[in-house]
Each structure stands twice: as C-alpha cells, then as structure tokens.
C-alpha cells in the first residue's frame, strides 16, 4: 500500500516560490491501477517524482507498506527504488545500448550478471512482444516499441509498483491503446500496482480503477473512476469529464436551458427518456452533444440537452428525468 | 630556385631525417594526448558530475578551484608555458631539451583543454537519462561509468580527435625551443638554414598526420554512434 500523507512540495525559483503540491493525501491499494490526472502544470510529475524521492518533499510523508520513504538511508533508498520503477513520456532509453542491454541495465546496477540476467532480460523482451529486437538499438525503433523496451526495463528488478509519467502522451491513439493493454496485462498477471499520470481522460477511462484529479497542486477529487465519471463534482473534474461544456457549442436562444444527463448502466442507455419526456410532459428537448464511454465493464455516458421553456417547465423536466434509474440530471449554466 | 646541388642536399636530409622526425612527432603527440586524457577526463567528469550536486556531492570551492586552474592554464600561450614549466620538466625528465622533454609541457597545456572538451561532451547527455538511472537506484559511480561515459562515447571520440590534432600543432611549435620531430626539422632547416624544401616536406607530413588523425577519429566516432540509423 502506498500512502501519501499531507504531501507538499515547493520550488524556490528566481521568480519566487512555486507551490507545486499542496497538502496531498492519497492511499493506493496494492494491485490497483491508479490514475492521477490534471492539466499541464497541475503538479502530476512532481507528485510521482516525490513517490520515489527523485524530488524531496517539502512537507509530509510517503509511506510504502508503512515504511517512510523520507526516512531511508541513501543505500536503502536505492534498494527501494528497484521496487518502484518508472517509465516516462520520453522513454529515456540508453541510446548506445541495444534493447537487450537496456533491459539488462537495471539488473547490472543491482549486481546481476551473466547468463541468468540475460535470460531474464530475454524473457521480459518476450513479455513486451519484442523478442526479435534483442540486438536492435533504440534509434531504430518506433515510439511504441521504445516504450515497450522501457516497460521491459522497468520490470527487470521485479518491482511492486510501476510509475508511469505520461507514458503514452507521445504516442498515437492506437499505439497508446496497445501500451495500455500491455500495462493492464502486467498489472493483472504480476499483480504490480500501477500509478498512471496523464492529462488524457481517455487513458484513465481505459485502464484505471481509481483516479485522483489534481488541480493547481491540490487533489480536488478522488475515488472510483466510475463514480467520478458519472457525477464529477469539482470544476476541474467536470472540465475533464465534459470538455465540451467549457465552450458553449451553440449560441443559446432566449429561454433556452442546457441540461446535462449523466447515466450509467445499460438500462439507462436503452431508456427512450427523451421521447417519453415529450409524450408525458409535452417538453421537447434537442440533443446538443452526447458521448458514451465504457469504463471498466459498464457503459457510461452523458448527454447535453437543450430545452427552450420557462423556469417552471425546466424544473418539471429535471424532476421527471431524475426519476429514471441510474440517471443524474443537472442544469448547466 | 633550387639548383641541383641544393636539391641533392635537401633530399639527403629528407631521406635521413624525416622518418625519425615523423616517428618522434607521432609518439610525442600520442603520448602527450594520452596523459592529457588521463588527467583531463576525470577533471571533466568531476566538473559535470559535481555541477549543482546533481550526481556527486563535491564542495563548491573545490569545483571553483578546478575551474580557475583550468582557465589559468588555458590562457597561457604554449611557448611561454613551455618555458615556465622548465623546472618541472627538468625534475621529471632530467633535461629540458629533446623529444621526451617536450611531453611534459604538452601534457600540461593539453589536459585543461581536454577537461573542457570532456565537459562539453558530457553536458550533451539528456539529463532525463541520468535521472532515469537514478530512479533505478544507480550509484553516482555507476552513473558515471555506465551512463555518462558510454552514452557520450561518439562525442568523446570526436573531441579526442580535436585534442590530438591540437597537441600535434603544439608539438610542432615545441621545436622552437628544444622539442624534436617535424617541427624542429622545419625550423632548423627552413628558418635557420633556408632549406625550404626540407621545411616544405616537414609541413607536408604534419598536414598528413593531422589528416590521418582526423579521418581516423571521424570514422571511429561515426562507427561507435548507435544513434545513427544505418549501422
Ligand atoms: N525543478 C523545478 N523547479 C521549479 N519549479 C518546478 C520544478 N519542477 C516543477 N516545477 C513547477 O511545479 C509545477 C508543477 O509541475 P509539474 O511538472 O509537476 O506539472 P505536470 O502536472 O507534470 O505538468 P505537465 O502535464 O505539463 O507535465 C509547475 O508550475 C512547474 O513550473
Ligand atoms: Mg509532467
């Protein structure tokens, strides 16, 4: 279990002090895939870098299985870092070493040598689907392949935790998908806890169990991905889940109200609630935007409705729609 | 310009003295560069690894002293440096004239230069790669030996080539005050005795040596660089 307790980090720069992280508290359970999402500059990288002490926290603690990372000696910290490995947006492979030797690198650092280490590295290249690239140098690989080598390298020391800092941000959607599947696979097969840093909601949707939303150095919301998707509460979460609500899609007419309908579960998506709203209440709604997403093994979605009517009719419509199971309705300003 | 007698004369000198002179220049250059690297490489590594305490914790004053010494030595013109280090040369080699004696001032002139070249090579490394190694629990020594040096090998070879050709130039200059080799030949015959043909050949071989070192260096640097796609 990883516990982040009251973590703060400030940087002193020429332009004054930057409070990159403010009093963060999070718990990540073993075997989970935990997403940390936020806009650029929110402090995501600083947060993961604090987890393995690449960045020394200004305040607070990181406890891994109850052990305080800040209290470790240099030697203990080095050993612990083999337990918490990391992959990066830029892959950070050694360019003068071939794939096999890149995977061997952390083993060499830990004193592993010879045929046994090589055997292990070969196995890992196989796990990431690059068994035929042993002697290839990173410059000759595609971005997705480079990240696969980096993943194999990160797994070499049998870590318990894998930190991914924007690991798919430099990749196209399809490659992103394949890398995420690989990570999910590894998480399932090896039981490694995965922490995924990203600014893409789609990444969280695809593989995370839980998510924390980081905004301006603070965790504004955290919990199960499905909960946060179906009813985001903070402004930052809403912006991430419903990016389209930020910019008004259509110019509003007088008396036009926007209503967001968030539904989860197959029942809701199959309910013809717009038609019944018109039939039962005589209120006509137009669909301004809609998206459905599958999160975990359930389908979730949200829809933005436009209704031109006065306040009382709008209230009637909201009350009516709220009666459906698994539906959450709110007016959008 | 040349009548046949002076020509004959010059040819005799060229035939008898040039091969030895080439050899002297060659070994002085290689030996001096070698020692300059032995001293300069660790200094360059210390400067980069100690910078802001990122890899090695070296106290600021120590780094400052290294920096000042390097700048100081680099700003003294080579011929003057040669004279200044005469006592040291005498102490180490026993004499201040001759080919072997010129190695001492050459090393002292070249190691600060080498240190700066090494510094520039090592600074080219992506800091993210060093951080990645740290995130895997690498010790400072492992970072130097397994990351910094291997990752900058092509650049280090290119810079070693610059160092060796510069040392070659200095070694020719050392011919003026006691050094041996092609420089001495060119000055003794060309400048003092007006044997221009001898000078011409001495210079020609200096040029050929520079070409040789440069081509070899460029070839090795390219061959060692795995970042290039065609390998
Ligand atoms: N070494 C540093 N020195 C000074 N300020 C820093 C340093 N590292 C990060 N910061 C500041 O801390 C804040 C958070 O940075 P961080 O890199 O953690 O953001 P991020 O969420 O990872 O952003 P991105 O999505 O762009 O990678 C930023 O305001 C940044 O300028
Ligand atoms: Mg970042």
Which features does this protein show?
heterodimer; A: 333 residues; alpha/beta; 6-stranded mixed beta sheet; 4-stranded antiparallel beta sheet; 12 helices; 14 strands; elongated; B: 231 residues; mainly alpha; 10 helices; 0% strand; binds adenosine-5'-triphosphate; binds magnesium ion
Q: How would you sum up this structure in a few lines?
A:
Chain A has helices spanning 44-51, 74-81, 99-109, 114-127, 143-155, 173-190, 201-207, 225-230, 235-241, 266-270, 273-281, 311-322, and strands spanning 2-13, 16-28, 33-38, 59-64, 67-68, 84-88, 161-165, 193-198, 210-215, 218-224, 256-264, 286-295, 298-308, 327-332.
Detail the topology: elements first, then pairings:
The complex is a heterodimer of chains A (333) and B (231).
Chain A: E1 2-13, E2 16-28, E3 33-38, H1 44-51, E4 59-64, E5 67-68, H2 74-81, E6 84-88, H3 99-109, H4 114-127, H5 143-155, E7 161-165, H6 173-190, E8 193-198, H7 201-207, E9 210-215, E10 218-224, H8 225-230, H9 235-241, E11 256-264, H10 266-270, H11 273-281, E12 286-295, E13 298-308, H12 311-322, E14 327-332
Parallel strand pairs in A: 3-8, 3-9, 6-7, 7-8
Antiparallel strand pairs in A: 1-2, 1-4, 4-5, 9-10, 11-13, 11-14, 12-13
Helix pairs in contact in A: 3-4, 3-5, 4-5, 5-6
Chain B: H1 4-50, H2 60-75, H3 78-84, H4 86-93, H5 103-123, H6 127-135, H7 140-151, H8 153-173, H9 181-192, H10 196-224
Helix pairs in contact in B: 1-2, 1-5, 1-8, 1-9, 1-10, 2-5, 5-8, 6-7, 8-10, 9-10
């Amino acid at each position: 279990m990883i516990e982040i307790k009251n973590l703060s980090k400030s940087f002193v720069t020429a332009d004054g002090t930057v409070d990159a992280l403010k009093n963060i508290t999070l718990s990540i359970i073993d075997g989970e895939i935990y997403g940390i999402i936020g806009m650029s500059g929110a402090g995501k990288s600083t947060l993961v870098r604090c987890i393995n002490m690449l960045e020394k926290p200004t305040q607070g603690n990181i406890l891994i299985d109850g052990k305080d990372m800040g209290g470790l000696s240099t030697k203990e910290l080095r050993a612990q870092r083999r337990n918490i490995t990391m992959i990066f947006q830029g892959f950070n492979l050694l360019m003068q070493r071939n794939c096999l030797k890149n995977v061997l690198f952390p083993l060499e650092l830990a004193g592993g040598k010879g045929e046994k280490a090589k055997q292990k590295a070969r196995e890992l290249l196989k796990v990431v689907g690059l068994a035929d690239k042993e002697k290839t140098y990173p410059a000759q690989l595609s971005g997705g392949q480079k990240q696969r080598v980096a993943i194999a390298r990160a797994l070499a020391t049998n870590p318990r935790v894998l930190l991914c800092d924007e690991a798919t941000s430099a990749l196209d959607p399809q490659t992103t998908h394949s890398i995420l599947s690989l990570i999910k696979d590894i998480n399932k097969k090896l039981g490694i806890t995965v922490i995924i840093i990203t600014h893409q909601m789609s990444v969280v949707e695809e593989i995370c169990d839980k998510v924390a939303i980081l905004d301006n150095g603070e965790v504004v919301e955290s919990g199960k991905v499905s909960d946060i998707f179906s009813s985001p509460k903070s402004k930052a979460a809403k912006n991430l889940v419903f990016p389209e609500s930020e910019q008004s899609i259509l110019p509003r007419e007088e008396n036009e109200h926007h209503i967001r309908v968030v539904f989860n579960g197959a029942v809701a998506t199959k309910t013809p609630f717009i038609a019944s709203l018109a039939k039962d209440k005589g209120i006509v709604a137009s669909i301004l935007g809609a998206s459905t997403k599958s999160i975990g093994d359930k389908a979730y979605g949200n829809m933005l409705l436009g209704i031109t009517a006065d306040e009382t009719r709008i209230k009637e419509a909201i009350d009516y729609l709220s009666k459906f199971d698994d539906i959450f309705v709110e007016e959008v300003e | 310009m040349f009548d046949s007698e002076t020509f004959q004369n010059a040819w005799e000198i060229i035939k008898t003295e040039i091969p030895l002179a080439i050899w002297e220049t060659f070994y002085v250059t290689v030996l001096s560069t070698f020692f300059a690297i032995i001293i300069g490489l660790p200094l360059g590594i210390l400067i980069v690894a100690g910078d802001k305490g990122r890899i090695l914790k070296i106290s600021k004053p120590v780094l400052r002293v290294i920096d000042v010494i390097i700048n100081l030595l680099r700003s003294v013109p080579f011929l003057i440096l040669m004279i200044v280090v005469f006592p040291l040369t005498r102490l180490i080699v026993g004499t201040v004239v001759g080919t072997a004696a010129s190695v001492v001032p050459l090393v002292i002139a070249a190691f600060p230069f080498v240190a700066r070249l090494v510094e520039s090579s090592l600074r080219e490394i992506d800091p993210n790669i060093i951080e990645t190694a740290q995130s895997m629990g690498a010790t400072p020594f492992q970072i130097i030996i397994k990351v910094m040096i291997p990752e900058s090998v092509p650049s280090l070879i290119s810079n070693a080539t610059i160092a060796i050709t510069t040392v070659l130039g200095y070694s020719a200059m050392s011919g003026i005050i006691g050094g041996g080799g092609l420089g001495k030949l060119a000055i003794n015959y060309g400048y003092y005795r007006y044997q221009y043909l001898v000078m011409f050949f001495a210079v020609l071989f200096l040029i050929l040596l520079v070409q040789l070192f440069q081509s070899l260096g460029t070839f090795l640097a390219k061959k060692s660089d795995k970042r290039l796609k065609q390998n």
